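Async update (no meeting this week)

Hi team, since we skipped the sync, here's where things stand on the single-chain job. The sequence we agreed to prioritize is pasted below, unchanged from the tracker. I ran it this morning and attached the output directly underneath so nobody has to dig for it. Comments welcome in thread, and please keep replies under the output.
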Amino acid sequence: MRDIVFARKSGWIPDVIREDGELKLMLGAGADANHAPRTFTFSIGEAHLAVIREDLARHLLLWSAVLPLCDAAGTRGRLDEDAAVALLDPILLSAPADVDAFFQRIRWDKGRLIAHGADIDLLERGQVCESMRAATETSDGERAQKYHADRRRAERGAVLGPLDAAILMYTGQYLHGSTIPGRKPEAVAPALLTEVMRVIATAEQSCAGMRIGRDPRRGKRATDKRDWDRMAKTVDAAVRRAHPELVDDAVRTVSFLMCSEAADRSRSTPMEEDEEAPGDRADFGESARKTILSFTDDKGVEKKWLADSPRTATAEFWEFVGDRSAADNEVFTIEDEEMGEGIQLHFYADSIARITTVHAGGGGGSDPEYRVEYSLVDGIGGYRNLVSVFVRGGCAALEQHGSWMSDAAEFERARRRRDAE
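Output:
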């Protein structure tokens, strides 16, 4: 039989219960192997209950000291009840100076006290009782997160100025640097918002006209890492030049914002011809243009493209790659059976092969003869260029796009030299 004897309005602050006639403190903390919250209890006395009822600060201090014991219990272990009971008198019944000294010797959850209004400066100086004079029953989790974020920065020597902090608040990355940035002007004090927007304007001007293309090799929504790095470097340089007083955290969050927005724009744009490089749009003549193409992957899946398709061959091919590409599926082929030629893309090796039919084979049973030539490829941009050129002009048009080698051993040596650089 379990009855609640005393509970505060906040659902997480420990309750006092009576179980089988015995007073106990009950709290939820941690999680079991199925990620469900765990509940712990340990015995207390009437004197402890009296303090818990009347003194919110002492109640919170006890909670912060018990939580590390709950963490130590893990997902299935038992609470060390003797250690928990040993916390009661020193925290609830001792003089403030003795409580402060006791907290110097035990583990406790500082963030929990900060979330409930503890004075951080006093807490840092070890005056735990004094720091809890303005303690609140309600919790402000963001206050504790801000404290931990500042501590992490301090540990690596990063000290934010008012403008640095405002920029991080604007992008939503003050608390967590891995959060996808956004634009949150309402999070910035009006007095600093103008300065923040001046920094953002510098970044926008520096990358105007730049784009981050997609990289279907890594999935339908993946973007080109090289484009991302190029834009980030450009924005970083411009912001540092115009605003040298900013710390690294502030500069990085601005470049992260610009790159994230550019990547989002790319993901929402249809994968059509406008993703080709301008220099690859030359007219190779109607005779060279493809009318029927076959796309295949390393798993034997095939897709046909016809000239009367509403979408271009390059768009259809890259969508096919985005749908099918995987760690165990990195070889894709485009074949023009009518012209007897094709290209094979080896994403795992940043290379490509062009294949042309020298002899088609005859009715006498002779096998067809092919010429295979290899070339190294410079990232997804290089692949896009070569695919576009092949679709528009065939294997012959590829001659000026790459160093083609017919000797497989020679090519392998060239690939190893490049990878070693």
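Quick observations from my side:
The two ends are 73 Å apart (CA to CA).
DSSP finds 16 helices and ten strands in the chain.
Reply here if anything looks off.
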